[in-house]
Amino acid sequence: MWRRRVISTKKRNINLDMIRVIAVFSVLSVHFFLHNGFYEEIVVGKRLFFMGTMRNFFMICVPLFLILTGFLMNKKVVSRKYYSGLKKTYITYVLASIACLVYFSISTQRSFGIIESIKMILNFSAAPYSWYIEMYIGLFLLIPFINILYNGLKSKKQKIGLIITMLSLTVLPSVMNIWGISRKIQGILLPGGSENWVKIIPNYWTTLWPLTYYFIGAYISEYDIKIRKRNNFILLVVSLFLFGVFNYMRSYQNTYEVSDYNYFQGIQPAILAVLLFLFILHLNLDNIPNILKSIITKISELLLGIYLVSFIFDNLIYPKLNARIIEMPKRMEWYIIIVPVVFICSLFLSGILDYISKFVFYCVGRVTSKLKEKREKDK
Predict the structure, then answer these.
(1) What is the DSSP string of 9-33?
(2) How many C-alpha atoms does 239 have within 13 Å on its Cβ side?
(3) CB neighbour list of residue 163: distance below 8 Å, 6 or more residues apart
(4) Mean pLDDT across the chain, nearest whole number?
(5) What is the dihedral angle through the alpha carbons of 193, 198, 204, 210, rounded to the nearest 10 degrees?
(6) Phi and psi dihedrals of 326, rounded to 5?
(7) Cβ neighbours, 10 Å, residue 61
(8) Does the pLDDT of residue 129 top 60, yes or no?
(9) Cβ neighbours for 206, distance < 8 A, ≥ 6 positions apart
(10) Integer Cα distance of 43 and 51 in angstroms
């Protein structure tokens, strides 16, 4: 039976922190495949099937973050306090951008002037992974108004209708518009590249996919959606395997086919992200050691910085990996070393940036307080 759920903000939810950590680790894992030559390799054999399936699973990273955003922020309203929450995000982005510019300057022996650096920070090119920040800032500004739309729907049926509409506009095209129906029957069953696809339904609104995940998160939060743990896990594993087989067949004897259906706005990441979110959300994590809870919580507080500065360590590590291990499939064995190393290094640098950020806030607070005291005395 569905029921409304009241979310407490007074105590951190370790399950949500766990989802955050899984999401950021998945981002770094996606970058493992981005930088190790995977997308240039011909897809043949068990190892490439396994790598393709892993890559497909880790594409849940951004959908998880967006579902979590909807889960936590669906009651936010227009207020000064709400918009002030963007300051920490932007300061973290600016500090990470400066770190990336310093790295660029050292690695390329090129100096960046103040004006050029400011331009790069403002146009989100200083930190190469900052496309997410650009998207998130826009979403953050829209959230109070999106919530008016969502919360203005009074019945569960209306909210389901909204989500179905958003899925139809953003996710369904990744299912329907990938078939070569103008070809022979085998072309329908096992279509080749995108040049053979026929558009069946409109796909103009697919770029709204962040809102789809946001509404899904809001709905899960409000109605406490649950699937029995055993069934949830089975659905997750079976879906992952079937998607892996599908992607392997479509890419067989060609390079890995990246398309809407296995990208952030696609049906595959959407199903996997929702299933994993629900599974982790309802796990009983109360009995894990307090020290581990503290570590998970601390990591979750540094996620944005970890994500942004990981570019530096990706550029330091992957060229060495690719030069050392010539055959791309054999680089898979280094996953359990490379990704944790990038994670730890990024965590350390993000921690330093976090202390700098807190110092900046402290200084700004002190100056603001002094100015306020001075104005009161002048009165």
Answers:
(1) -SS--HHHHHHHHHHHHHHHHHHHH
(2) 20
(3) 212, 215, 216, 219
(4) 89
(5) -50
(6) -70, -45
(7) 24
(8) yes
(9) 169, 170, 173, 174, 260, 265
(10) 10
Distance separating alpha carbons of residues 52 and 38, to the nearest angstrom: 9
Which pLDDT does position 193 carry in this prediction?
52
Q: What pLDDT sits at residue 4?
A: 41
- Please write the tens of the pLDDT for every residue from 255-312: 998 888 999 999 999 999 999 999 999 999 888 999 999 999 999 999 999 999 999 9
The alpha carbon torsion through 36, 38, 42, 43 (nearest 10 deg) reads 140
Q: Which residue has the tokens 């009161």?
A: 376
If one counts every other C-beta atom within 10 angstroms of the C-beta of residue 378, the result is: 6
The string of DSSP letters for 252-320 reads BTSB----GGGSTTSHHHHHHHHHHHHHHHTS--TTS-HHHHHHHHHHHHTHHHHHHHHHHHHHHHHHH
pLDDT of residue 5: 41
Structure tokens of 4? 């409304």
Query: What is the biggest distance separating any 2 CA atoms in the chain, rounded to whole angstroms?
Result: 84
- Cα distances from 57 to residues 102, 139, 236, in angstroms, run 33, 25, 10
Please tell me what DSSP assigns to residue 43.
Answer: B
> Which position has the token pair 């064995």?
333
Specify the 3-state DSSP secondary structure of 327. Answer: coil
- Cβ proximity of 267 and 58 under 8 Å: no
> Which of 32-41, 218-227, 235-244, 361-370 is least confident?
361-370
Exposed, middle or buried, 110 (CB in 10 Å: 0-12/13-18/19+)? exposed
Residue 31 pLDDT greater than 60, yes or no: yes
Structural tokens at position 353: 């940036």
